[in-house]
Amino acid sequence: MYYDFDIHVPGSGAAPHDSEAPRDYVALFRDPEVVAALNGASETVRAFFAASGFGMAQGRSGLPPGYYPAADDDLMADVTQRIADNLSQFALKGENFNGFNLAEFARALAEAEPLPHEDTDGVASDGERAELPPATISEPGWAKTIASTVFQVGIVILLFAIGKGVWTAIG
Prior knowledge:
It is globular and about 40 Å long. 30% of the residues are buried. The C terminus is likely disordered. It is mainly alpha-helical. The protein has one domain.
């Protein structure tokens, strides 16, 4: 399983990357196995992911594994923050994750990199795109900040799992 996800903003009239826009988006995992695992997970696990901004359908951006559009930096940070906030709101100890590996998800979240704007301009309105070659990021700026924040949240998730005895959920 791989834990990349796409962020979709429904036609709400608000600009998707406007800092004043409401949290009107849904994060969708790209791997159908991840989607199937979450759909078969316990109600508490599904509620945790829903509260963190995730839907239970598959994302189909066609972006290369490990990448997301650079324009989604703020939304990625919001998803990450929602996950961190919700860890204390949901009792995940002993819950059935149905094969979803929380530690692998945290690692993927921490390692995800933004593609430069010019590499994501060709996304079709239906979310499909041809495969892109891996990109290099010449100016890390926000990318490093987001990556650092995501890595820190990954550490928080792992520490939470250790402290709460959720090893069965992430193993």
